[in-house]
Amino acid sequence: MTAQEIRQKYLDFCKQNGHAIIARAPLVPKDDPTTLFTGSGMQALMPYLLGQEHPNGKRLADSQTCLRAQDIEEIGDNRHTTFFEMLGNWSLGDYFKADQLPWFFDFLTEVVGLDPNRLYVTCFMGDEANGIPRDEESAKIWKDLFAAKGIIAETQDIGSEADGAKKGMEPHARIFYYDASKNWWWRGDKINDMPEGEPGGPDSEVFYEFDYIVHDPKYGEKCHPNCDCGRYMEIGNSVFMEYVKTAQGFAKLPKQNVDFGGGLERIAAAAIDDPDVFKISVMKPIVTKLEEISGKNYESHTESMRVIADHLRAATFLAVDGVVPSNKEQGYVMRRLLRRAIRFAFELGVEQNFLEQIVPVIADLYHADFPEVAEHREEVIAVLVKEEKVFRQTLRKGIRELEKLKENGLTGSDLFKLYDTYGFPVELSVEEAFKQEITVPDNWREEFDAHMAEQRQRSQTAAKGVFKGGLGGKTDQHKKYHTATHLMYQSLRTVLGDHVIQHGSNITEERLRFDFSHTDKMTPEQIKQVEDMVNEQIDKDLVVTWEEHPTKEAIEGLHVLGAFGDRYGDVVKCYRMQAKDSDTPFSFEICGGPHVDHTAQLAEGGKRFKILKEESSSAGIRRIKAVLQ
């Protein structure tokens, strides 16, 4: 069964069991500045797991695309990927263990067709210090499920992962009790660190055994389900959120939730009985295309092809969700993924038209199941191909510079030069140095950061006397255009979507110019909508006020819009534009000012806001020029 078939069969299976199928959340979370990416299936559903009612009911299911940037360095083995899909189903105060575990077991054995003899499960062994009993209910359910297949399934206490390496697996053991370090879930790490009011609960994981893989003792003396040797691979986890931390300890939640996540790529690997996820149907065509255009085979260039396949899947979906390569936040991660992929392609001897050939293969793998991939196909290809062209111009120069430094080693200053002059992400330089056996000192990061701090200081000095947000003057007309920019920014997000992020502005006495992330040319109707919305707010005569807040509070607590980052200090000015009879502002944005006192001033002399031009500024970035006339 292909990964595409497994995904659809799973959603059909959940629908048959009363679940509403919901769309995936974007890879870039909306209105959550605390994290760069959607890194798990449940992330977008946390408000509903905490008690908020979901408009689609109490039973939900989806296939959520996820990205974990912290795993970039681990790519190259047979199971780690930065981009992956989580098959998820949730019960919001509805069904619980007695339904969830049989459903997943049936899906794996009856729908996907996995051999139940190759499945092993784990349960929570309890926490006596916190008064939480072992999860015998789940263990009993599993025991009965295996018995129905004629399989003896004894239980065994393991404890921690380290304990497992010492104990190994007893004969006929198939249900393993692990401690809170492995089978207790909450949003943090250690159970004893849970704050009051935080929900959590035991979980039960399912592992598939590749029984032909022999345990490697370098991962521990003995093998067990949570061993990293590769014999066992986790393919799904059911979290039973049934407790809440209180001042007195742990209490039962009034409503018990189920949060299930199953790795699509890993289930697909189990379905073909091969632990190499790069051989499944949403990966192998990418590898096959790499073999075709490079003239090299996967077996001889495994790591390079795995890195490329993974990184380009991730970059493609980031582009679908509106991210463009840049030197900040999500754009920086995207740029790093692309440049690592291009560097590995260079190693394969592929030195031109690389992404132009690979990205369409990736798009073809997903366009039938995710309409947004088909919808943005051409824009995505254009964004990624442009980044390749830019980077290839500097790649050879950068590698030559590295080779010059081979004899004396690489310092933090050298790394900064490669970053500043050649556009090499510092992690890529360090990785390349390691490949070429160039010495890098342990304190390279401190020296590199010192140069970065000096560069920021130079930039700030050069910008003295210029207001944040591109305002170059203090006249009334400058203030009016600056205020209009805020109104237009919020209007663009309302009309086009929350993916619209400011990428620069410039204001003179004659006009405003504004760059923002958006892949499509705006339609005349959209331009008219934005104009009308801005003029409506001008006519409402919104009051313009500002207040200072600690930066973290503004971002995380008040959700103030702004180009967050180190260019702001510990405290920021937050400008609010709000009607007198309204409880919420139309615009609430971090800015250095200055602005007019109320928006009707923009209409003095009978002037109206008018967009003169909307055009492309760069790949994935649009530019507007507008006036008050």
Q: Could you write a compact summary of the structure shown?
A:
Helix content is 39%, strand content 21%. With 629 residues, the chain is an alpha+beta fold. α8 (284-294) packs antiparallel against α11, α10 crosses α13 and α14 (412-422) crosses α16 (444-462).
List the helices and strands and how they pair.
Blueprint: H1 3-16, E1 20-21, H2 46-49, E2 59-67, E3 83-92, H3 97-112, E4 119-124, H4 136-148, E5 154-159, H5 161-167, E6 173-178, H6 180-183, E7 184-185, E8 199-209, E9 232-246, E10 249-263, H7 264-271, H8 284-294, H9 302-320, H10 329-347, H11 354-366, H12 371-375, H13 377-404, H14 412-422, H15 426-435, H16 444-462, H17 476-496, E11 502-507, E12 512-517, H18 524-539, E13 543-550, H19 551-557, E14 571-578, E15 587-590, E16 609-618, E17 621-628
Helix pairs in contact: 3-4, 8-11, 9-10, 9-13, 10-13, 11-13, 14-16, 17-18
